[in-house]
């Protein structure tokens, strides 16, 4: 099977989001040219039972049902190893992908010869995201813009041989450490300045909750010992305050219609 981009979707205690996620990926403008890899690491809610029928119906969807619990970054590495497309990205179950996200990312990475890519992100509490039309301009204007690339990153599959995969010793900062290596080694990266992803703040996910604070502090200590840059590559991102001002005055500058 030939595809442009592989999407890694790890699920753990996310059964309530399965129907939403399947509908979301089904509406991707290049659904047939993308690969979707679901990883369920021995989740108590057995999301595999809901995902398996969908994957059986679609040749471009695969389910990796593990018999052991692994952390997020180890799950992403499993998906990365299994990916068949030249480009790879990840998406959380409770986050939302713009219908044209994969089309735009794959097109821009090839056109600009980027090895790593991120997009502008809107951030909102999960309970506040409109269920019917989250990608309308009116809905996005009520959210906060988020300019860190941790929410969504796409990269070339071949980076596993030159940069290495995610460090699964991290609890929540494995993506930040990965970007640190990208910057340190001079890998070509870029940002698409369109809002193409909604990052959902949810108390249910440990990595996004106060319960994970101690482990996040351990991540910070580990990051401090890496010996290379430990911050997001802000030079490619518009200044946060300016970005919010521009979006309030000229919202269509960062807006991409869903169709």
Features:
9 helices; alpha/beta; single chain
Task: Provide an overview of this structure.
The chain has 259 residues and is an alpha/beta fold. Helices cover 32% and strands 21% of the residues. It has helices at 18-26, 48-57, 72-82, 101-112, 137-141, 159-162, 174-184, 213-223, 240-249; strands at 5-10, 34-41, 61-66, 87-90, 96-97, 116-125, 144-146, 154-156, 189-201. Strands 1, 2, 3, 4, 5, 6, 7, 8 and 9 form a nine-stranded mixed sheet that branches. Strand 2 (34-41), helix 2 (48-57) and strand 3 (61-66) form a beta-alpha-beta unit. The mean pLDDT is 89.
Secondary structure topology:
Blueprint: E1 5-10, H1 18-26, E2 34-41, H2 48-57, E3 61-66, H3 72-82, E4 87-90, E5 96-97, H4 101-112, E6 116-125, H5 137-141, E7 144-146, E8 154-156, H6 159-162, H7 174-184, E9 189-201, H8 213-223, H9 240-249
Parallel strand pairs: 1-2, 1-4, 2-3, 6-9
Antiparallel strand pairs: 4-8, 5-9, 6-7, 6-8
**Series of secondary-structure elements, N-terminal to C-terminal:** EHEHEHEEHEHEEHHEHH
Q: Which structural category do the helix and sheet elements fall into?
A: alpha/beta
pLDDT averaged residue by residue: 89
How many helical elements? 9
Task: Please outline what is shown here.
The chain is an alpha/beta fold. Helices cover 32% and strands 21% of the residues. It contains nine helices and nine strands.
